[in-house]
Amino acid sequence: MDDRLFKTAMSKFATGVTVITTEVNGEVHGMTANAFMSVSLDPKLIVVSVAHKARMHDYLKQSDSFAVTILSEAQQHLSTYFAGKRKEDQSVAFDRFEQLPILKDAVVNIVCSQYANHVAGDHTLFIGEVSNIQLSDQAPLAYFSGKYGTVQIAE
């Protein structure tokens, strides 16, 4: 099977959109990721999958903690910015939560310490032990088949 077929098939799984942030040597770094999930309730663990070729990969390897921001439907511009798809300079204001950089006005912010990481093919799975969470009542940004969307809640 070729790479294109595999990527197309995987894009048919609707996901939320997150931005992973960390700080290394006083500099904040972030990247958009939709490869995110919860792993365990006891202990409370989440995982993000980051390509070895991504700049964020090295930053996460150097850091002992990171944050995951689940974006709201109004934050598509932040998703494209942290995915490297916006070429113009954009000033991003970070808030702090448990000493980690986070994006404000998000659906959820999760802060965690690195619990483990595992190489899986051309990615590393970074497992974080959750230390705290911020929640808001906003609709999440969705991603399906290479396009952004919104979530319709069935009643």
Describe this structure in a few short sentences:
By secondary structure, this protein is of the alpha+beta class. The protein contains 3 helices and 12 strands.
Number of strands: 12
Radius of gyration: 15 Å
Count the DSSP helices.
Answer: 3
Number of domains: 1
CATH-defined architecture: Roll
Q: Tell me, rounded to a whole number, the average pLDDT.
A: 93
What is the class in the CATH system?
Mainly Beta
- What percent of the residues sit in helical stretches (DSSP H or I)? 10-25%
How big a fraction of the residues is strand? over 45%
| Global shape | globular
Distance between the termini: 40 Å
Q: What is the CATH T-level topology?
A: Pnp Oxidase, Chain A
Q: Structural class of the helices, strands and pairings? A: alpha+beta
Q: What is the quaternary state of this protein? A: single chain
Regions with little confidence, pLDDT below 50 for 5+ residues: none
Biggest beta sheet attributes: 7 strands, antiparallel
**H/E element order:** HEEEEEHEHEEEEEE
The CATH superfamily appears as Electron Transport, Fmn-binding Protein, Chain A
Keywords: Oxidoreductase
Organism: Pontibacillus litoralis JSM 072002
GO molecular function, one term: riboflavin reductase (NADPH) activity
Domain Flavin reductase like: 10-150
